[in-house]
Amino acid sequence: MADLLNVSGLHGGYGPVAVLHGVDLHICAGEMVALIGSNGAGKSTLMRALSGIATVKCGQVVLEGRRLDAMSAEQRVAQGLIHVPEGRRLFRSMTVEDNLLMGAFRLPGGARAQRAGLETVYDIFPKLRERARQDATTMSGGEQQMCAIGRGLMAQPKLLLIDELSLGLSPRLVEELAQALMRVNALGVSILLVEQDVGTALRLSSRAYVMDQGRMVHTGPSKALASDPRVRAAYLGAS
Ligand SMILES: Nc1ncnc2c1ncn2[C@@H]1O[C@H](COP(=O)(O)OP(=O)(O)O)[C@@H](O)[C@H]1O
Ligand SMILES: [Mg+2]
User: Fold this and answer.
1) Residue 202 class from Cβ within 10 Å (0-12 exposed, 13-18 middle, 19+ buried)?
2) SS3 of 235, please?
3) Which of 20, 36, 43, 45 best tests ligand 1's pocket when mutated (most atoms within 8 Å of CB)?
4) Which atom of ligand 1 is nearest to the CA of 86?
5) Name one GO molecular function term (predicted).
6) If you average pLDDT over every residue of the chain, what do you get?
């Protein structure tokens, strides 16, 4: 499989605060890859650096052969790199459908393309179709997460960065979201997934990276990592 994303030697953080210390990572077209590691390891910061919110001091971010690291966050969205941030961050006092449409406002194709996008999202998350006219922030946490992922999908991503898929959700909802993510991935969208529940993260992904103190410390097929005691050690660091 061809590389979709190639990250090499990435250093960065927040202004003068260095968090990432030489991160390498690659994602092939169509892959779902997990990023795991204890609290404070730098997973969110890496996602922010990829999407253009955190500072990149040096290193390269290449998507389909194009350098993204000098681009603005908005330009990266146009290239197909979409970040679903931790905490969902839906727009208040707006319906589910209007929140979804916010993800598509840059797209060419007008109302017809937007309608097609909504249909795709509603097929993946039937609950959002039922709740289309409801104020998005009055929904349950799981439904808000569906809406946040749906909004990301509306931008027609090549790569979705999903930070903390299941934070605060019940096991039943986590399973529902896991099934939906597999449907998203089956559409050909590549996914980089940060997920506290290592079991879920490794079950959904084909490969995984383990991060610690701003560095990648292990990587390999998810099946192999699931029984790797070093991964368990990194996981236990979280609790
Ligand atoms: N906005 C910020 N400004 C400065 N430091 C931050 C900021 N956000 C996170 N950090 C620091 O960056 C490090 C990595 O945090 P983070 O990327 O959130 O880790 P993770 O997502 O793996 O839990 C932590 O030491 C954290 O305190
Ligand atoms: Mg985080």
Assistant:
1) buried
2) helix
3) 45
4) 21
5) ATP hydrolysis activity
6) 92
Mutate to test the pocket of ligand 1, among 19, 48, 210, 217 (most ligand atoms within 8 A of CB): 19
Q: Is the CB of 37 under 6 A from ligand 1?
A: yes
List pLDDT tens digits, range 32-71. 999 999 999 999 999 999 999 999 999 999 999 999 999 9
Overall pTM > 0.90:
yes
Which ligand sits closest to the CA of 209?
Answer: 1
Give residue 192 CA to ligand 2 midpoint distance, Å: 13
Exposed, middle or buried, 86 (CB in 10 Å: 0-12/13-18/19+)?
Answer: middle
The whole-number average pLDDT for the span 113-142 is 93
pLDDT tens track for 65-98: 999 999 999 999 999 999 999 887 888 889 999 9
Compute the distance between CA of residue 121 and CA of residue 223 in angstroms, rounded to an integer: 30
Question: What is the bridge-based pairing of β-strands 159-163 and 190-194?
Answer: parallel
Tell me which residue of 5, 83, 19 sits closest to 213, measured CA to CA: 19
Q: How far apart are the CA of 42 and the centre of ligand 1, in A?
A: 6
The tokens 């383990």 sit on which residue?
210
CB 31 within 8 A of CB 190: yes
Contact 88, 147 (CB under 8 A): yes
